[in-house]
């Protein structure tokens, strides 16, 4: 199937272009970007021009930041094409609901991707937790924003999500692996005095079974990043680390099993998109974004030192 990529920036180049090139499902037919392009692929600055020149493009994968994404997604759906969304699927929950309804009415597939859920050991962690009673869950997502978002001021603008841009990856895994739903109880947002969005956050969740669940996100981490979820149950404990790539059960490392889980996060997202299109289905799990929205609703704001890249 012919696919077009829109928003040719860091993640498009790092992950989407290689994942599409390595897939037998997809052929990159065009790019749409105001300034970026991919060598050897026809490039356009608007979706309308691209569809005019390449009516055979069936799917558009959107890689721009969340705030401008809605207008692009709505245009793709109105053009009767399927649409794939980078995480987070939008800047607000209500726009995501509208896109989901538009796609259903137009009979096209929409896929809100969560790349971290495709990490190698996430499915194993979910299976291990399925029958167990939770006691404590701690999510730690700490990384250096200068390393992962060099010079990207949009991440600190309103709608850029701040530290929730990586933190939502932890929440996407949390909502995938826990056997029970959780909701936010309280939040603390640390916002640099010269920015709109938090550079760090602490969250506490309510769990129906009474487990203590918390999350800590920090973009001021220097050195190695920490992308870890620790779960203590009544029957053992697990540690999912390296963003879901590594799993320890009761302190013992679990070997990765051969299979699709080892193909890489983005190749699996593109396989899933191919399946959704073939089966005429959509996937739009908005739980991670709902938790982030609730953190902004409930969060107490603390002003911290200014931040410059
Ligand atoms: P980026 O490089 O700053 O932006 C991607 C591209 O989006 C830009 O090159 C730009 O292309 C386009 N763009 C920017 N602002 C726009 C606007 N107002 N209107 C239309 N297009 C605009 O960002 P990124 O790091 O690739 O992140 C993009 C998305 O991927 C985010 O949702 C992020 O959470 C997600 N993501 C990022 C990473 C990562 O490591 N950076 C990892 C996983 C997921 P043109 O100027 O050429 O149009």
From TrEMBL:
InterPro entries: Gfo/Idh/MocA-like_OxRdtase_N, Gfo/Idh/MocA_oxidrdct_glycsds, NAD(P)-bd_dom_sf. It comes from the Bacteria. Transmembrane segments: none annotated. Gene3D superfamilies: Dihydrodipicolinate Reductase, domain 2, NAD(P)-binding Rossmann-like Domain. Pfam families: GFO_IDH_MocA. One of its GO terms (molecular function) is nucleotide binding. Residues 1-109 form the Gfo/Idh/MocA-like oxidoreductase N-terminal domain. This is D-galactose 1-dehydrogenase.
């Amino acid at each position: 199937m012919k696919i077009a990529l829109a928003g040719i920036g860091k993640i498009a180049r790092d992950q989407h272009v290689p994942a599409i090139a390595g897939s037998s499902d997809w052929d990159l037919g065009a790019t749409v970007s105001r300034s970026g392009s991919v060598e050897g692929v026809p490039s356009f600055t608007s979706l309308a021009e691209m569809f005019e020149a390449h009516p055979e493009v069936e799917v558009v994968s959107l890689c721009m930041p969340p705030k401008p994404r809605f207008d692009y997604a709505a245009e793709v759906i109105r053009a009767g094409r399927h649409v794939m969304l980078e995480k987070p699927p939008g800047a607000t929950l209500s726009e995501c609901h509208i896109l989901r309804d538009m796609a259903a009415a137009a009979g096209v597939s929409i896929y809100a991707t969560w790349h971290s859920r495709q990490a190698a050991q996430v499915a194993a962690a979910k299976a291990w937790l399925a029958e167990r009673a939770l006691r404590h869950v701690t999510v730690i997502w700490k990384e250096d924003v200068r390393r992962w978002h060099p010079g990207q001021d949009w991440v600190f603008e309103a709608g850029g999500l701040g530290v929730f841009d990586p933190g939502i990856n932890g929440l996407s895994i949390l909502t995938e692996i826990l056997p029970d739903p959780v909701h936010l109880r309280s939040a603390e947002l640390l916002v640099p005095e010269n920015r709109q969005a938090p550079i760090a956050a602490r969250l506490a969740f309510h769990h129906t079974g009474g487990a203590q669940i918390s999350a800590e996100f920090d973009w001021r981490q220097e050195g190695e990043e920490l992308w870890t979820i620790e779960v203590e149950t009544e029957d053992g404990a697990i540690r999912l680390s390296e963003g879901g790539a590594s799993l320890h059960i009761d302190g013992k490392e679990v070997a990765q099993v051969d299979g699709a889980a080892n193909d890489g996060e983005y190749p699996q997202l593109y396989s899933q998109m191919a399946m959704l299109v073939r089966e005429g289905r959509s996937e739009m799990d908005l739980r991670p974004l709902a938790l982030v929205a609730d953190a902004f609703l409930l969060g107490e704001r603390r002003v911290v030192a200014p931040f410059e890249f």
